[in-house]
């Protein structure tokens, strides 16, 4: 986009605001952006990118983004016919978390959170939808 500063800033702003661009070093060192450094908009872009980097760092520090959360000893359970209630709940929680994280539009799966609640419910009538999804009722 040599010479197309307005267009370059349009795409940069979209990358920062919509896609969460957070690599300040990449922007400041990339030769393709040198011609934009003198433009007054450049400082604003860098400020927003630095803010994204700060937010990204906070998000990366959250408990569910730490390896220790996903590598919990409760989740490393060898197959046994009778698991403890804690192991069952940990496995089910990880299953739903992985499914929600790895599948596009998982929020469109009908009532997945209700299924999770029903898995842990003590009322046997709550188990009906579980059969629809091929899930056995978990005895806690």
Give a short synopsis of this structure:
By secondary structure, the protein is mainly α. It has 7 helices and no strands.
Determine the number of helices (DSSP H or I, runs of at least 4 residues): 7
Sketch the major β-sheet: none
Radius of gyration: 23 Å
Instruction: Specify the overall morphology.
Output: elongated
Total beta strands: 0
> Roughly how many Å apart are the termini?
61 Å
How much β-strand is present in the residues? under 5%
Topology as a string of helices (H) and strands (E):
HHHHHHH
From the structure above, extract its key features.
140 residues; mainly alpha; 7 helices; 54% helix
Task: Write structural notes for this entry.
- The structure is a single chain.
- By secondary structure, the protein is mostly helical.
- The chain has two domains: 5-61, no CATH class; 65-132, no CATH class.
- 54% of the residues lie in helices and 0% in strands.
- It has seven helices and no strands.
- It starts with a helix and ends in an 8-residue tail after the last helix.
- The model is unreliable at 127-135 (pLDDT under 50).
